[in-house]
Amino acid sequence: MKLDSALLIGAALSFATAAFAEVSTGHPFYGDPPDDNHPWCVHDQNRPQPKLVKPLPESKLEAKAKAPAGAIVLFDGTEACLSKWVSDKNPNEPTKWIVRNGNMECVPKSGYVRTKEEFSDCQLHVEWAAPTPPEGDSQGRGNSGIFLMGMVEIQVLDNFDNPTYADGFACSMYGVSPPLANALRPPGEFQFVDITFHRPIYKDDKCVDPGWVTVYCNGVLMQDRQQIEGPTGHGRRPKPCAFPEKGPLKLQDHGNPVRFRNIWYCPLDPAKAGAPKHGPMTAKATAAKRKELAASIRKDAAGKPAGSVEQMLRFAESLVYEKDDATCKKVEQMAGQYLAGVKQLPADQIGSKKDEVTQVGNDFKYLAKWNIVPDDFGPKVEVEKLAKEHGWKLKK
Which helix (H) or strand (E) holds 310? Predict the structure, then answer.
């Protein structure tokens, strides 16, 4: 949808006065680690949270949200329009999602839905609302997703006073690019999302145009011609590849009764795609950022209780961003002392350490999986022996 200059100016003023949120949530030793062009892990707890921005009033968005002449309407609030959608798992079957009060509502555990219509480059409008009263937190609250061509997810999530890992926020390109802001209304109120999508173009197995996505939410810019790096997924980094010429729009069933309404699109000419504005960082910039992140995490670790498991694992986390011999030796020494203490516990007390030991073991397995420490790293070998001795299962 084309937004007028008043809306853009309002969004810019909101950005100018917004402050970064201080809370950052997620899990270390979780998603794919940094690489030569990405300083962050996938779903990185250390990645800054999106700015909190006041959304534009619904009254200013409603007129612009109407499907223009020539648009293809995918859902207009009627039962008849639900026939344009089918089960994603079984496309020959109708969807089990329901129409309630003019909204298409996810029926938890019924599965994703997809459009019968297939398309590619487009201008897409979607409105969604999270359940109220809200239940759960982080990724467990009002979760769904808008899958462009069924391959690139623009996240749907209730992030109103609900932090999560940055690249999983509402209007993130999931696992790739956090939104530039958090401009959500409270759960129960509808969010107005406008997407411009241009698919990747390949010729003779070579990328001619990687494709990009621009996203607005409630009149505020979320993604600014963000490069598509490949099909998105949970915990893994996308891999560039050719897309089919067309694909369906999919909506996710993540176990929450999220509601959708007013869904339409206008086809766009791929020849006018232009170039992405934002994408992977250069190797030099990535190396500098990773070094900065590692130093910040080591500083944070130094402030944790001396000799604690928390401090040890925080130092270990810094190795994900920068391999540092001194830090590696520190982690090895601290882990050795920790495991020696666990082994000395009486038989009736050692069971209380099960969760802690398995966490340490899983974290060291992560480091070895990505060659951050060698597979024969002493503490990793010792904690695996200890877990096996007591029948405590580690992640494969």
Answer: helix 309-318
